[in-house]
Write a structure and sequence with these properties.
Elements (H helix, E strand, L loop, with lengths): L7 H26 L5 H13 L1 H25 L1
Helix pairs in contact: 1-2, 1-3, 2-3
């Protein structure tokens, strides 16, 4: 096997890494745009997304979605 020719595993790891980077960048941009997220809570989310890319970014997007849904329900109740 030629070490200069990428294998299927190399290609798969490259795609997984690219997805992790894109997902993390999206989470970081979303964190930066979340105006109410400051201080320790913002730092905690940033560290989670940084050190646990897939799970942290996914958890951030789920938490953000739930916050937005709760805010919509609250506005609709009044």
């Amino acid at each position: 096997m030629n070490p200069l020719v990428p294998t299927v595993l190399d290609g798969t790891l490259m795609v997984v890494s690219l997805v992790a980077v894109v997902l993390s960048l999206g989470a970081f941009l979303s964190l930066a745009r979340a105006g109410a997220l400051t201080g320790r809570r913002g730092l905690a989310w940033t560290l989670v997304v940084l050190f646990v890319p897939f799970l942290g970014a996914t958890a951030w997007f789920v938490a953000r979605h739930r916050e937005h849904a709760a805010a919509r329900r609250k506005r609709g109740a009044h």
